[in-house]
């Protein structure tokens, strides 16, 4: 009886094995180097793609064909360096977007606030008896909570007028909360101003209404309701635009944080230069190690 070969002993490696044959097996085997890379877990940030990093690393692996563990470690370092350089480019784009995309929106908001402050100063100069009173919520709608409260109060005003018509005491209380003192001059006419105009029109005598052709009380109510609806829509559109801008701003800020301690493009450029020098050093090490290994490899059998 023929003796068993060593390969048939339990636990002995199968020297005749040809490796995985199925597509799924080949795919798993092709990722072994990535799976067991000593730096593979530490390099990725939470928001970064494992698949993209694996693809980069596998491409480098196939291109350089490491022959021993030392060369594998050097390839790991090269992959990390290339990944960080990619991160710098993303952060650089984010830095540029941060300094350009939101400039117009921020400038416009600043101008509106300055114009409103100027109107208040002019009102104070015209009316020497004017005294400071709590400002209306409308002038601080850059705060999300204040904006939502303004919309709530306007909806309450709308429902109240629909149900009961004008109620001067209650309506003015809501409008004062939203817009502040009605005696303060604003840059543009406000809903508060329109309400006063149409309430007074609704209160004139029937004789004067007929003489001057003024709107009826019912028409005045409908006009004010349209104005309230328009104001609600304006604030809702502002909210949508602001949410969109703040969402994009948040994404940009997240991208900017992908490079440590990088407040500006100059720092990004210095960081990128440092990464390039480090990559060149590791590449030189790898080429040198691979050349030495190949020179020291034994000659093929039967060849001279």
Please give a handful of descriptors for the protein shown.
single chain; disordered N terminus; 11 helices; 0% strand
Can you offer a commentary on this structure?
- The chain is an all-alpha fold and 304 residues long.
- The protein has a domain of 154 residues.
- It is built from 11 helices and no strands.
- Helix 4 packs antiparallel against helix 10, helix 6 packs antiparallel against helix 7 and helix 8 packs antiparallel against helix 10.
- 13% of the residues are buried.
Number of strands: 0
Please work out how many helical segments DSSP would assign: 11
In the predicted model, the low-confidence regions spanning at least 5 consecutive residues are 1-17, 26-40, 129-133
Strand content: under 5%
Global geometry: rod-shaped
Class per helix and strand makeup: mainly alpha
* Secondary-structure element pattern, one letter each: HHHHHHHHHHH
Oligomer: single chain
């Amino acid at each position: 009886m023929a003796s068993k070969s060593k390969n048939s002993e339990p636990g002995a490696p199968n020297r005749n094995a040809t490796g995985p044959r199925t597509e799924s097996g080949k795919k798993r085997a092709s990722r072994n180097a990535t799976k067991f890379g000593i730096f593979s877990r530490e390099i990725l940030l939470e928001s970064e793609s494992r698949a993209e990093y694996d693809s980069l690393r596998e491409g480098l692996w196939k291109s350089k064909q490491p022959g021993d563990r030392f060369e594998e470690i050097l390839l790991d370092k090269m992959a990390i360096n290339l990944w960080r350089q990619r991160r710098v480019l993303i952060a650089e784009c984010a830095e540029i977007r941060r300094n350009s995309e939101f400039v117009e929106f921020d400038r416009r908001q600043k101008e509106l606030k300055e114009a409103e402050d100027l109107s208040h100063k002019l009102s104070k100069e015209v009316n020497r008896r004017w005294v400071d009173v709590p400002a209306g919520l409308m002038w601080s709608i850059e705060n999300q909570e204040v904006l939502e409260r303004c919309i709530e109060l306007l909806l309450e005003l709308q429902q109240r007028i629909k149900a009961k018509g004008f109620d001067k005491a209650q309506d003015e209380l809501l409008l004062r909360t939203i817009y502040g003192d009605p005696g303060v001059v604003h840059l543009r006419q406000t809903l508060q101003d329109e309400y006063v105009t149409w309430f007074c029109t609704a209160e004139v005598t029937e004789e004067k209404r007929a003489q001057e052709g003024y709107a009826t009380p019912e028409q005045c109510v409908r006009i004010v309701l349209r104005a309230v609806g328009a104001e609600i829509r304006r604030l809702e559109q502002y909210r949508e635009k602001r949410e969109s801008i703040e969402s994009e701003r948040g994404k940009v800020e997240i991208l900017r944080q992908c490079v440590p301690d990088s407040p500006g493009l100059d720092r990004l450029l210095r960081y990128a230069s440092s990464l390039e020098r480090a990559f060149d050093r590791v590449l030189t090490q790898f080429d040198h190690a691979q050349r030495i290994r190949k020179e020291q490899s034994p000659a093929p059998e039967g060849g001279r």
